[in-house]
Design brief:
This protein has about 350 residues and is an alpha+beta fold. It has a single domain, classed as Glutamine Phosphoribosylpyrophosphate, subunit 1, domain 1 (4-Layer Sandwich). Helices cover about 40% and strands about 20% of the residues. The strands form two sheets. Strands 5-4-3-7-6-2-12-13 form an eight-stranded mixed β-sheet. It has a five-stranded antiparallel β-sheet with strand order 1-11-10-9-8. The protein is globular. The structure holds aspartic acid. The site of aspartic acid (ASP) has 14 residues, from strand 9. This is Isoaspartyl peptidase. Keywords: Autocatalytic cleavage, Coiled coil, Hydrolase, Protease, Signal. One of its GO terms (molecular function) is hydrolase activity, acting on carbon-nitrogen (but not peptide) bonds, in linear amides.
Length: about 350
């Protein structure tokens, strides 16, 4: 039976700030107005994450890395930094960790290489940048930001994106630095499964769809609201295990895997990219907020649980609005996730029941 989960944290910052002992002790109107309003949420992929298949050591390792990532972004915001910087700081921690399917821990393509996708969006002005299918960039989210800030384009792909990177002084790394034993095993298992499916005369798409969710899990993303009231969102991934023919998922597609607009919300998605592209997931959530006055929790629930799930689209989103409300919504058994709002400790969770 498919399980549905809408884990929406309704966290109005002003309300929580009033409850916090520090602000409470000095509860003048002036102090409340001056209370910093900022928040950040991250994900490290959604899928079949079950307690039974997770050792305590592995769980602790994920929780520690999620906490490190959320705190890296939070620290930027706390110091008055921009939401874009917070998003990049949080994502870099996860890109540099072999635990996640982004940067260092990226999955393998069918041909045994790694092709990385990333995108970022600025909620102030809908500026955006993305890179797709890059093989020699250690931190694709940084390059996506360069495309946004230092080129007239939104999305650059493959060799051209790397040429742009080189022209901007970004060091090229060997594709082998993304190799990990765990992902190599996943590729072998995925290829076996694909070959079996093909023997049964199914086409490649059907074969890919028959792969269990873990073969494509671990994309990372972040959404942030800074003290200036600006939203930003970013997503980075190695895509889907055994992908081929230059397949690009939703992560670098603005509106599908990433979206941010101060007038509605910021979203980063993870899940079966083909569905997230066709259902324009990130933008659809923010459009419901903008034009239908939905809360982010309602909008995310509608798109993830009521629209995607019935058609077979698995995955989740992290959503943040300009008031600091956070929704962490997924239709899978778990989603690596964390959130932190001004003055509060970080909340880290993996499974559907935490
Ligand atoms: N959305 C990613 C992709 O389809 C994969 C994931 O998030 O698990 O490339």
């Amino acid at each position: 039976m498919k399980r549905i989960l809408n884990l929406a944290l309704s966290l109005p910052i002003s309300a929580l700030a009033l409850l916090s002992p520090i602000v409470h002790a000095q509860s003048s109107a002036a102090t409340e107005a001056a209370a910093p309003r900022f928040a950040i949420a991250i994900h490290g992929g959604a899928g079949t994450i079950e307690k039974s298949s997770m050792t305590p050591e592995k769980q602790r390792a994920y929780e520690a890395k999620l906490e490190e990532a959320i705190n890296a972004g939070y620290t930027v915001l706390e110091k008055g930094g921009a939401s874009l910087d917070a998003v990049v700081a949080a994502i870099n921690v996860m890109e540099n960790s072999p635990l996640f399917n982004a940067g260092k821990g990226a999955v393998y393509t069918y041909d045994g290489a790694h092709e990385l996708d990333a995108s970022i969006m600025d909620g102030r002005n809908r500026q955006a940048g993305a890179v797709a299918g890059v093989k020699r960039i250690a931190n694709p989210i940084n390059l996506a930001r360069m495309v946004m800030e230092d080129s007239p384009f939104v999305m650059l792909a493959g060799a051209g994106a790397e040429e742009f990177a080189r022209s901007r002084g970004v060091p090229m790394v060997d594709n082998k630095i993304f190799d990990t034993e765990q992902r190599r095993e996943q590729l072998e298992r995925a290829k076996e499964k694909l070959d079996q499916e093909n023997k049964q005369d199914k086409d490649y798409r059907a074969a890919v769809e028959a792969l269990p969710v873990p073969f494509r899990m671990g994309t990372v993303g972040a959404v942030a609201l800074d003290q200036q009231g600006n939203l930003a969102a970013g997503t980075s991934t190695g895509g889907m295990t055994a992908k081929r023919f230059g397949r690009i998922g939703d992560a670098p597609v603005i509106g599908a895997g990433t979206f941010a607009d101060n007038k509605s919300c910021a979203v980063s998605a993870t899940g079966h990219g083909e569905y997230f592209i066709r259902y324009n997931v990130a933008a659809d959530i923010c459009t419901r907020v903008a034009y239908q006055n939905k809360t982010i929790a309602q909008a995310a629930d509608e798109v993830i649980n009521q629209i995607l799930l019935p058609v077979g689209g698995t995955g989740g989103v992290i959503v943040l609005d300009a008031k600091g409300n956070i929704a962490l919504t997924f239709n899978t058994k778990g989603m690596y996730r964390a959130s932190r709002i001004a003055g509060q400790p970080a909340q880290v969770a993996i499974f559907e029941d935490k």
